[in-house]
Amino acid sequence: MLTGMPSLSHQEQEQAADRIRQLMETGMSSGEAIATVAAEIRAKHQGDRVTVIFDDEDE
Fold first, then answer.
1. What is the structure's pLDDT at 59?
2. Residue 54: C-alpha distances to residues 6, 14, 19 (Å)
């Protein structure tokens, strides 16, 4: 699996974690909250340079 995510600053990472916690407080599952925030980050950084992560299964 190949996943592209923008490189985030420490502050952006903290904001993402806070957003995930907020969504979970409203009753959203952790997986759903993470997926939602990841989609928001991808949309916000569309066209930016991304970090590519390779899953061991693809090697």
1. 46
2. 14, 24, 26
Contact indicator for 48, 34 with CB cutoff of 8 Å: no
Please classify residue 10 by burial: count the beta carbons closer than 10 Å to its beta carbon, then call 0-12 exposed, 13-18 middle and 19+ buried: exposed
Residue 52 domain boundaries: 2-58
pLDDT digit string, tens, across residues 29-55:
999 999 999 998 888 877 655 555 555
Overall number of domains in the chain: 1
Q: What is the four-CA torsion angle of 35, 40, 43, 49, rounded to 10 degrees?
A: -80
Q: Which helix (H) or strand (E) holds 21?
A: helix 10-25
Does residue 33 contact residue 24 with C-beta atoms inside 8 Å? yes
